[in-house]
Amino acid sequence: MRRLEGKVAIVTGGATGIGEAICKLFAREGAYIVVNGLAIDPVHDVVNDIIRDGGVATAFMADISIEENAENCVREAIKKFGKLDILINNAGVFLVMSEIEKYPIDAFDFLVRHNMRTAFLMTRFAIPELQKTKGCIVSAGSEAGKMGIAENAPYGGTKAFLHAFSRGVAVEQAKHGVRVNCVCLGAVNTGWLNTETGPMSCKQEKNIVSATPLGRCATPEEAANVYLFLASEESSFMTGALVAVDGGITLSKGAVGEDVSLEMAKEPMGDLHLEHTVVHVSDVGK
Fold it and tell me: Does residue 266 belong to any structural domain of this protein?
């Protein structure tokens, strides 16, 4: 029996990076997927990949920081599949690395809109349907939301909101049978951390990896595996949890990652066929 057999899941930001991995892994485990993304995202490519591999998926391309679009995303799941069991609040942005006195105000506003408002709106509209199915929500937190992050303090602030928001909703909705948890990721090998496509410098990237006890970034598939666990019945007694998937960075002191052997620092070979790990970077704040 597959772990999500017959479940219906919405994955926001589902066309690239970690979102693509979540969509493909959940589909492999039997879920019907609503893949949400923006018009510039390869949403249809991911849907077609899932269908070609024998899964079930549909596209919903819209900016879910807009109230009407968020509500319609939930309605699309009900229209296509008749119910909603799982909401994955994965959508989010990582725009600028800058000390606070130089941090662009429009970039801050963009972070609030796409990291916080999207999760609030999707949760608000999904909850009535999740109460019917005794479903669950898994949101994208971050180690930055626990510790803060130099030269990107606003990003860490938006993730801290998601941590507290998820915990509050978890306690509030437990009486309805809805579980809510948060995955607090460290560095993941997506386009946001690529120095050619994302906002980080080579020095900043090196500092993050060297401060990670496991001495490397996570792969999108490794991150998706934790989302799968939290969305499945295997985590049936977990709610309000902030699950650290950070290679130990929140515990480290200094460049401990440099002590790891080359063999240990190798990324594991996954078996999901991921094509869209490089996400688009907004022009906001440039």
Answer: no
